[in-house]
Write a structure and sequence with these properties.
CATH class: Alpha Beta
CATH topology: Rossmann fold
Radius of gyration: 16 Å
CATH architecture: 3-Layer(aba) Sandwich
Number of strands: 6
Number of domains: 1
Order of helices and strands: EHEHHEHEHHEHHEHH
Shape: globular
Distance between the termini: 13 Å
Strand content: 5-15%
Structural class: alpha/beta
CATH superfamily: SGNH hydrolase
Length: 226
């Protein structure tokens, strides 16, 4: 475990496979043109600051602060990962918090995981899409790398069948804004009762699983240290 890690609170030459298969195998978006490798992104060295912006899943509701995914990711990468998760936040609220957080922490990387409360409250999809698009633009304007984290769409039957899937707006936004998309991370965790504290939150084991899979994704994309 890298000794530099810390957290703090907010103040290929083959025929081209299908898009879905590429997302599952490489988990990087946008995808390279057929016959080319998936793009690699700017490496973020150990000791750098990353900002994890989101809601209760980022905050770590259902576990201790030390078990939340930003803290676990910090231990895996050697980054300082600012946990800017606020339970109950919608995309509008997270958008309102982003600019001050960027100014305060000057992160090299922003992990954006937001939208679940919009879906639960049945807010207009166009509003959620617009807010996330605006945040991706703000991150880019601040000179940081954004990674978009897909959130599952709420579906009672899918939850009962343990087969949640991502809301499709994340794939569309990642392609449009040419940012990496970490797909299915939350969907897999929240489809497994052994990894959940309640119906919509992970437990410590779930956050650990999420952090490790996110770390693998970031390493494959060339963002996290190897």
């Amino acid at each position: 475990m890298p000794s530099t890690s810390s957290t703090r609170s907010p103040s290929t030459d083959r025929s081209c496979p299908s898009r879905r298969r590429l997302l599952a195998a490489i988990a990087v978006a946008p995808l390279a043109a057929c016959g080319k490798r998936a793009p690699r992104y700017a490496a973020i060295p150990a000791g750098s600051t990353a900002l994890a912006l989101g809601d209760s899943l980022t905050h770590g509701t259902g576990a201790t602060a030390e078990a939340a995914y930003p803290a676990r990711l910090a231990a895996l990468t050697g980054w300082t990962v600012v946990n800017a998760g606020v339970p109950g936040n919608t995309s509008t609220q997270a958008r309102g918090r982003l600019a001050p957080l960027l100014a305060e922490h000057a992160p090299k990387l922003v992990l954006l995981s937001i939208g679940g409360n919009d879906f639960l409250r049945q807010l207009p999809e166009a509003e959620t899409r617009s807010n996330i698009a605006a945040m991706l633009g703000e991150v880019r304007a601040a000179g940081a790398q954004a990674v978009l984290v897909a959130v599952p769409r709420p579906a009672l039957m899918a939850a009962l069948m343990r087969s949640l899937d991502d809301h499709p707006l994340y794939e569309a936004l990642a392609a449009e804004h040419r940012v990496p998309l970490f797909a299915s991370g939350w969907a897999k965790v929240l489809s497994d009762p052994a990894l959940k504290a309640d119906q919509i939150h992970a437990n410590a084991a779930g956050y650990e699983r999420f952090a490790r899979e996110l770390h693998d994704f970031l390493r494959a994309a060339g963002i996290a240290p190897r």
